[in-house]
Amino acid sequence: MYSIDNKIEKDTSHFNNFVSAYEELIDNRRKLFNIPPIDNFFCFQDKKNISIINRCKTTHFLYYLVTKLCIEYSKNNEKNKTILIDGGGNNLGYLYLELVKSSVKEQFDINQLLDNIIISRAFTFYQLANIIIKELPTLIKKLNCKIQIIVLDIFNTLFSSVSSPNRIKSKLKQNAVNVQEDKIKILDEILKNIINLSKHYFAIFVFTDFKKTFNKNIFSHFNQILEIVNTYNNKNNKKESIIHMKTTSTEKSLMLDSILKIV
């Protein structure tokens, strides 16, 4: 079990960091989703990381984006690997269905694509911490190739094993608070570890059920953010989905309906 007292030395010198100037340029201009209105907004420089946050009740477009990340990165290059770390829910099942649907539509070999995706599923928060902080650097060293890291729903395991405060007996409340504080510290270490890796590898955090409590903490770690939100349009008298895109220097919003017309 991983705990905050069981830290590892964050030595990334063993990673294969050498890339040519051309490869670095390609990475900086990488088209994540093959959706021009979104791809053209983002450009990766010092750190190649992005957070994708879903604030809508439906997750269809979110899974579509994650599917496109996998397809565009590895479909035509068997040396590019995707490490997909799932922290909860039924994400893997939904993503597989999206991949199958896309393989039929775009006519590519899904088995070849799946061979380039390495999957890890965590069932507890401490398992997730162990995977990201201890096992992931070792795996990257063994693979020794171009890699993108996708982490899904780290909050699911963070909160799933903690009972509601109203249901905790008074004598156990302090223990519950201590456990929660310990998890928050580990969460911060997980984020720092991934951001450190994003100096050399693409790192994408995906949230299907984002907790508002951690907005400031999460946002401070990522250079680029894509949010899918619902908003009420008074003019049309209905709810509409909007994509907000942010970098450290600029931001832009797009109507989801306009994006869906071209995908």
Structural notes for this entry:
43% of the residues lie in helices and 20% in strands. The chain is α/β, with parallel strands linked by helices. The protein has one domain: 3-Layer(aba) Sandwich (Rossmann fold), CATH 3.40.50.300. Strands 3-2-4-5-1-6-7-8 form an eight-stranded mixed sheet, with helices on both faces. The protein is globular and about 50 Å long. The N and C termini lie far apart (43 Å). Mean pLDDT is 82; it is low at 7-14 and 162-168.
Topology:
Blueprint: H1 21-28, H2 36-39, E1 49-54, H3 60-74, E2 81-86, H4 91-106, H5 110-115, E3 117-121, H6 125-143, E4 147-152, H7 154-160, H8 170-197, E5 202-207, H9 215-219, E6 225-233, E7 238-246, E8 251-255, H10 256-260
Parallel strand pairs: 1-5, 1-6, 2-3, 2-4, 4-5
Antiparallel strand pairs: 6-7, 7-8
Helix pairs in contact: 3-4, 6-8
